[in-house]
Structure formats: structure tokens, C-alpha cells
Amino acid sequence: YYVIRMGSIVEEELKINSEKFFDYASSFKRSDFLDAYLFSKCAFVISVTTGVDELAKLFNKPICYVNFVILKHLRTHWKSLTTFKKIRNKKTGKLLPYYHLLLRELEECQDGNVFNSHNIGFVDNTSEEILYSIKEFLEKIVHNKETFVQSKIQIDFKNSYLDNFISNGNKG
Known about the structure:
Blueprint: E1 3-4, E2 21-22, H1 32-41, E3 45-47, H2 53-58, E4 63-68, E5 80-84, E6 86-89, E7 95-96, H3 99-103, H4 112-117, E8 120-123, H5 127-142, H6 152-167
Parallel strand pairs: 1-2, 3-4, 4-5
Antiparallel strand pairs: 6-7, 6-8
């Protein structure tokens, strides 16, 4: 595969020494038309849920989300896989289950100050977690193989959140 870094607002150029990597986000060639063209031709997308993800949906491309937080933005369409950031209580340092956000009605929250007022922080996915997610995504979604078995955590999440989320009219 070739990797193209997308985006329009980046702090600095990402320098990766590979002929199969292009930092399009830092390129003077970037344009809205070329954004759409690249999404129409890509095999799949790996993303952190930015607005450009909508192009992947428009062109019916499989999406692997990493470092996901906002539950209301969860995509449950047929060709996606999502890896969430971990939720941490800022006072105790203890990890919290995602239903903690639902109990506090924070599933739509995008304001860091609100999370701070609830002593909620987030832990980014590690590089190992992201790599595992991408491998699982490629196996299950892109190559249509069921070699990965759902963990108890995945099954519990589906049963407790997704079923409730979808039954309340959200289609993702």
C-alpha cells in the first residue's frame, strides 16, 4: 500500500523516509478537488474522525478510526472499525468504561473544559494498539477474513452501547 497523509491544517510536515509515503497535507498541490479525487481512488482510509472522513463515506470506502472519542460521531456502517481512546478519571488515574460518558450525558461533548469539569481525561491509543487495529481492519474489512475473534470487551460494548444507540434512532 501507499500512504497519503490527508488534511488541510497541519502544524508541521511529517517526514517519513519511504517512497510509499506522501505528505499531501503539507503539499502545495493540495486542493479540495484533489482531496475528493484521492478519496475516490483509495482502497481504504485510516482516520482520527475529521471532517474529511465524510468523503470516504461518500465514495463508500472502508474506514479504520483510531483515537476515537465522541460517541455521537460513531460510525456503524458496514465497512468500518473503531478503536477508542481510553477514558481516565483525572483525580484517581483509574480507567473508566465508556458508558461513564453516557451516564453523564457527554456522548456528544466536544468541549475539553466540560470533560475537565467532570475530571475526565483521555489516553491516546499506543502505536501497538493502532497497529493491531489496522491489522484487524485489513483482515476483517478490507480482505473480508474473519480471523480475529471479538473480545468480551467488544461484545459487551456492542450489547450495551451500540444496540441502545441504534435503537434510539441513530444510524451512524
